[in-house]
Amino acid sequence: MKTFPEVERRRDLSPDEFFESYVDQKSVVMEDMVVDWAASGRWNTDYFCDVIGDMRIKVKPGYLPTGAVDFLPFKNYAQLVIAYEEQLSQGEAGPEDRPPYLHDIPMLSMCPRLVDDAIPFPVAYLPKWYRSQWWEFSQFFFGPTHSLTPMHFDSLETHNTFFQVAGRKRFVLVAPQERQHCYLYKWRWSHVDPDNPDFEKHPDFLKVSPTETTLNPGDVLYMPPRTLHHVQSLDLTISFNIDWQTAKTALRGAAAIFRGMPLENVYYNSVAAAGLLTGLPSRVLFPLYKPYLDYVS
Ligand SMILES: O=C(O)CCC(=O)C(=O)O
Ligand SMILES: [Fe+2]
After folding, report:
1. Considering 88, 131, 245, 260, which has the largest number of Cβ atoms within 10 A of its Cβ?
2. How far is 57 from 239, CA to CA, in rounded Å?
3. Ligand 1 pocket: which of 220, 229, 230, 242 to mutate (most atoms within 8 A of CB)
4. Which ligand is nearest to the CA of 138?
5. Residue whose C-alpha is closest to residue 182's, from 205, 203, 163
6. pTM
7. Ligand 1 atom with least separation from CA of 233
8. CATH 2.30.42.10 fits 9-295, yes or no
9. pLDDT digits (tens, 9 = 90+) for 260-292
10. 3-state DSSP helix/strand/coil % of the chain, to nearest 5
11. Residue 56's closest CA among 72, 44, 68, 36?
């Protein structure tokens, strides 16, 4: 694994400074920001078996973006993960044996009890439009050690605030200005593995200066729109994100139709722009936006 310079880390970053100095400018880790949530001690495999054990969930074999999906009850999935972690610790399994990855599921909307575990939620770090029902915009991730999301940017060109609850996750980031050197395909995916780049095939990637960070439980990562990210689970991990827009970036996202953004994404950005510009509450517009959360990857 290559190592890259560290993403900036801040403790006690105020909402004002966050919006002034980071939003739409640079990535930052807000260290220990949510370490006091009940979720911190509570979210583990047993707890999720209690809370959503019988829920049929969608999982994907680890190799995005083309992997097939599978549906199974969470408790059956958890058994696969537990067995794998045990074998891994005994040296009887390797990364390639890992079970599928449960990712990009609107789990907090599906199971409101989980929302109570994420209190106090730092709503001041989101635009007002998102604050009253922030959880509706979240996507959830639960994965075994070595789960991998290959390098991509988020499809609506949203800001991403990423909450790490259990286990450690390593992010390799590429700033938006450098993405033209990243051999993109299907709008948002990169052909380059930043940990193991093939410079014969991808010589332009030599111009890129990635950074990296390993999130510990309780850390929160902010990434500006169009930041490329390559994400590896270093342990069994549980996380969720919120993809959000400001009025400015939602309009920019809607105008991205001229840069090749898929039409469906342009539509979702137009819905967000309508809410952020007119003040129509998210509860009114959310039904139009919700299908995005099932389509995101
Ligand atoms: O945690 C992961 O595996 C991927 C996270 C991600 O791509 C995102 O939050 O947009
Ligand atoms: Fe992403």
Report:
1. 245
2. 16
3. 229
4. 1
5. 205
6. 0.96
7. 3
8. no
9. 899 988 999 999 999 999 989 888 898 888 888
10. 35, 25, 40
11. 72
